[in-house]
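Section 5.1 Outputs to date
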Amino acid sequence: MKSRLFDTVAGLLAGLLVTVSASAQSDKPVSLVVGYSAGGSADFVARVVGEELSKRLGRQVVIENDAGASGMLAAQKVMSGPSDGSVIYMGGTDSVLVPMINPKAKLDWEKDLVPIGRTTTVPMIFVVPSDSPYATLSDMVRALKKSGKDNFAYAVPGIGTMQHLYGSLINKRANLQMVHVPYRGGAQIATDLVGHQIDAAVLVLSTAMPFLKDGSIKALSVSDAVRSPQLPNVKRIGEEEGFQGTALPLWQGLFLKAGTPPAIVSAYEKALLEALGSPEARVKLAEAGVTVAPMKGQEMKAFIKPQADLYRDIVRAAKITMD
């Protein structure tokens, strides 16, 4: 009886300490650490979400851009910080993928981080010049198999990027030998594609949208699990023959350092879901080609695990490494 009473009292005291700690810090800013430079798509999402979080947490959310090492510098900053909710990490596909292909990246998302929730997905699209003879991904696959062409090249913004994985996935599932050409960024890729200096490319929708609107390029497939509202007539990859059930979205979510008290994680999760329900935030993100895709922390964890298995399968098959 005394043991049970002691456990009950200890539990109440622990909960009280968490509440007091959170209350004491309620007037202090929260850092939202982003692993990419200001002005990019990840930074944009962080600023839209951060503004809405500030309203709901009653604390200023300050964006900190800690660019470098494919987002890993930001992760390391969070892991070396306190586990009291004062530092949030905006992670995503790179948080899972980069440690698979770069042995120097010391991050285990399951052990080192605790998920708050998923925020958004960003569709990747496989694109070709507007005068290309291919109307769909299936058209292209059939034509390349028939011709036996082995020098068909697609551009991606760097080795080991999700765009690289998307092209490698198409190669693997369709038994093609397309050659990937790594660039330093998406803007130059689109320009070279329009100029017919490259056969095809994998781009994020936000980068491709101006060129799609002016008709200089066309999309053959969308990587996400749903069709893009901006491209309703373009099939998602999972609708194509040989790719059924497949999806490879770029995704983003918020995490805290492992060991953060559950009460703080729960409060942040609630605030995030409310923030993503804001009509103003949803409009801003949609206009930028970003899909609001909220998930609770445990739902995001369940989503990541099979995606991680798919990344690993592609990485091994294509022998992708980065150091």
